[in-house]
Each structure stands twice: as C-alpha cells, then as structure tokens.
Design brief:
12 strands; Beta-Lactamase; 3 domains; 377 residues; alpha+beta; Arc Repressor Mutant, subunit A; 17 helices; 5-stranded antiparallel β-sheet
Length: 377
C-alpha cells in the first residue's frame, strides 16, 4: 500500500478512536507500523490527581507495562524527554541524553534493555496545568536508533493524534456510537455543535445552546455558527471546509482554535471531522460534516522542573541530578538511582552550584522548594 493510502486509512482510524476509546490499542499498532517501531504507548494523565486517566500499549512485554506507569508516567509525562520540547514536537530520548548516560540509567537497565529497546520517539500531545498526554513509539535494537525518516512519518500523524486525544479528554473518553452520537454527547460539560460544510448548525447540546444564548463567545448568525473574534471566525470557516473534504485535509487546522469571550475569558475549540470511518455514519445520520467541541481553556502552566530548567539554563542531565539530590538527599543514592557514577553526579553538582548561585545541597533543596510550593494546590 502506498504511503498516502496508509496515512489516509490510519488518520481515519485515529479519529474513530476519539469517540471509541477501545480502538486505541489497534490504532497504536497501526501508528507503530507506519512510523517505524515495534511498540507504542499512549498516556493521558490527570495532573491534579497525579494519576493516569488512560493508558494504552502495544508491542510491550506484559510485565513491563505497569512498570512504565509506576516509574515514569505517574511522575509526570512532561518529564519523559518533554520538558525541553514544544507541544507537538517529536523528541528522541537519544536527543536528550548521551549514549553512555542513557545506558547507565536505571530505566534503561531495568526496563528498556530487557526488551531489546534502544530508543524512543515521543511527543507531548498536551501539557496543560490540568492534564498531560504523551505518545511514544519505541525503537528496537534491530531497527537502530530514531532516524530522520521516523521523525518525518511521526510528524505526519501528530496533528491528528493530538486532535483525537484532546477531544477524548474533553468528552472524558466516553463512547459515542453513530446511532446515539448526539444523545451521548448531549450531557458533556463542553459545548458541542454538529455543523455542515458551510458552518450551519445541525445540532447543539445543552452546553452549546447556553454558549449561543450568552452570545459572548459564539453566536448563531442566520443559522450558522459564528465566532465573535474575526481571526477565530476565519479559522473555523477554513477547518469546516477542510473537514468536508477529508480527514487528511484537516491537518493542523482546528486542533485548538482559540476563542476569546467579550469579558476576556479564554476558550478553545476542537474540530472532529465526520466524513469517513465509523464517524461517517454519525455524520450522515445528522447531515453533518464535523463536530465542534468548545470549552474553557486550561491554564498552560509549565511544571516547576520546567521552570527551573529554563530559568537556570540546565541541561537534561543537570536537571535529573538536581531532582535526584532534592528527592534522595545524597550523592551515592542519586548516583545509584540514576545509574550514574558518583564522580559524574559530583561534576553535575558543581555545575548546578555555578548556574544557580548556590554552594550546598541544602541550598538546592531550598531553591527547588521556592519554585514548587507556590504551585501546590
């Protein structure tokens, strides 16, 4: 099958998974094959509760699945190579850590090496103050490390996976069949609108009707959905037209259209095309080409480690050692946990002292606490 055909089929399945979460496992298998890896994982995390709201895997040994959640994801998906990356930008673990450091690290020794994994290409799909989501595609030793072709293919699917995951988070991973699409989504807190290619409103749920009644963010103009902001209005028009064409045509459009209420409150809109896959029946049933989900925008607050790293221009290795010292309290324990030599940890400590203007481990602990405490709920 040609790449374009593979991609089109895969994107359709990705969007179906937004409404039918049980499909994510098979979709991940397709993603891994398309991008070029034997295994993949998708995690959605509630940062407030510090727990996974969803976790899907394919190609990983059963006994290692829970370990990756316990050791990595529950800590914070943003820490898995994503602190230094923009949302939606793929990053390989070997981009961040030197090969010698990586091969000494405990996660590699206990988790990756036993499975024959040598690299992972990951992308942060969501990095808000309330949620985080991460897509990971692993590389086996027989395939070699992440290469340019793998990155290129990953970038082809990222906008579609992001859109599907963000919509899944908005509707709380509910299952909506074609026959009961509108009924199922009528009860969600986000505003939901079914529209045709011209933006004409076919159906609005209760929250959507409230938004229209208030007229602060969206309004109905001659039966068409309209945004009060001219830029948002143009963006919605473009994504509705694209959705009427094909899933692939939607591309990066409508992943998160920013909307501003007259009072200054921030909202965001996500557009799900309904013209192919299992969603096509839902669209046909309602004569709609897309579903628009609108909700208040979550605060895009960086995590304390991310703020610290950017403030003091720390490298990934320096940040790991800083957090290890703060959490474990000694050079030997930090070295053992991170899989580094004591001399290496001490070298990083000297660099940390120089960059942060401190001179003792206790001062480093106090520095990190100063960034963390004001953000604790």
């Amino acid at each position: 099958m040609r790449e374009a055909e593979q991609l089109s089929s895969l994107i359709g399945d990705i969007y179906d998974a937004a409404l039918e979460p049980s499909l994510w496992t098979s979709v991940l298998a397709e993603c891994a094959r398309f991008v070029g890896g034997p295994a993949a994982a998708l995690f959605c995390r509630d940062t407030a509760r510090k727990s996974c709201s969803a976790a899907y895997y394919v190609g990983l040994h059963a006994r290692f699945k829970q370990l990756i959640v316990d050791k990595c994801v529950k800590a914070d998906p943003r820490m898995m190579g994503q602190i230094f990356a923009k949302t939606g930008e793929p990053v390989a673990i070997t981009d961040i850590f030197r090969n010698d450091e990586l091969r000494q690290a405990r996660p590699y020794l206990e988790w990756a090496r036993p499975q024959g994994l040598v690299d992972v290409l990951s992308v942060a799909l969501d990095k808000s103050a309330t949620s985080a989501a991460l897509l990971m595609i692993f590389r086996h030793e027989r395939d070699g490390r992440v290469d340019d072709e793998m990155r290129r293919r990953m970038r082809l699917i990222i906008p579609h996976v992001r859109r599907a995951v963000l919509i899944g988070l908005v509707i709380h991973l509910q299952t909506a069949t074609a026959a009961t699409f509108a009924d199922t989504l009528d009860g969600i807190s986000a505003g939901m609108f079914l529209v045709d290619a011209r933006g004409r409103i076919i159906h609005a749920n209760a929250s959507g009707r409230v938004l229209l009644g208030q007229g602060s963010v969206l309004r109905a103009a001659d039966g068409k959905l309209a945004a009060n902001d001219a830029g948002a209005e143009q963006a919605l028009r473009e994504v509705f037209l694209a959705a009427g064409s094909s899933d692939v045509a939607v591309g990066v459009k409508g992943i998160g259209v920013p909307l501003t209420a007259r009072e200054g409150e921030r909202y965001v809109a996500h557009v799900l095309p309904l013209t192919s896959g299992a969603r096509r029946k839902a669209g046909t049933n309602y004569a709609a080409i897309a579903a628009l989900f609108v909700h208040k925008a979550a605060l895009q607050a960086p995590s304390p480690p991310e703020i610290i790293a950017k403030t003091y221009k720390l490298t990934p290795s320096e940040l790991r050692v800083l957090l290890g010292i703060v959490q474990l309290g000694s050079v030997p324990e930090t070295a053992a946990t991170l899989g580094l030599g004591k001399a290496t940890v001490r070298t990083h400590l000297l660099r940390l002292y120089a960059k942060t203007g401190t001179g003792h481990q206790a001062e480093l602990v106090k520095l990190v606490a100063g960034f963390t405490n004001p953000l604790v709920a």
